[in-house]
Design brief:
By secondary structure, the chain is mainly alpha-helical. The protein has helices spanning 3-22, 27-47, 53-60, 63-73, 76-118. It has two domains: 1-73, no CATH class; 75-121.
C-alpha cells in the first residue's frame, strides 16, 4: 500500500469514527449505518477512482450533518422510547452503584466490629524504636 493510500484510509476511518461517536443509537444500529456509508463510499470510489476525502464528505455530509439526518428520520415515538430507555439505564446503574457502596460500607463496619469482638475490646500497641549505631 502506498503512503497516499494509507493516508487516505486513515482519514476515511477517522471520518467513520467521528460519525460513530456522534450517533446517539445502539452499537448494532451504528454498525449498520457505518457499513451502509462504507458501501456508499466503495461505490463512489469505483465510479470515480481519484475521489478525495473532501469530495466524499461533501457528498455524504459531515459527521454532524449525518447525525442530524439520522435524528430527523426518527419519529417522535421512537425518539421518546430511546430517551426513556437511556433514563432507565442511568437509573439502574445509579441503583447498582448505591447497592455496591452500601455493601462495602456494611462489610467494613462488620469487619471492624468483628475485630473489636475478637479482641474483647482490648487493643495492644507495640512501639518499635530503632536506634542507629554510633560510629
Amino acid at each position: 500500500m502506498t503512503k497516499q493510500k494509507i493516508g487516505y484510509s486513515y482519514r476515511l476511518n477517522r471520518y467513520f469514527r467521528q460519525i460513530k461517536y456522534k450517533l446517539p443509537c445502539s452499537g448494532k444500529t451504528k454498525r449498520k449505518l457505518i457499513q451502509d456509508l462504507r458501501d456508499r463510499v466503495d461505490a463512489m470510489t469505483e465510479e470515480q477512482p481519484g475521489i478525495t476525502i473532501e469530495e466524499i464528505v461533501q457528498a455524504l455530509g459531515t459527521a454532524d450533518q449525518i447525525t442530524e439526518e439520522y435524528l430527523s428520520s426518527l419519529d417522535s415515538d421512537e425518539l421518546r422510547r430511546k430517551v426513556i430507555s437511556s433514563r432507565r439505564v442511568i437509573r439502574i446503574l445509579a441503583i447498582l452503584i448505591t447497592v455496591v457502596i452500601i455493601t462495602l460500607v456494611a462489610t467494613v463496619a462488620g469487619l471492624i466490629l468483628w475485630n473489636h469482638y475478637c479482641a474483647n475490646g482490648h487493643y495492644e500497641t507495640t512501639e518499635i524504636v530503632y536506634t542507629w549505631p554510633e560510629n
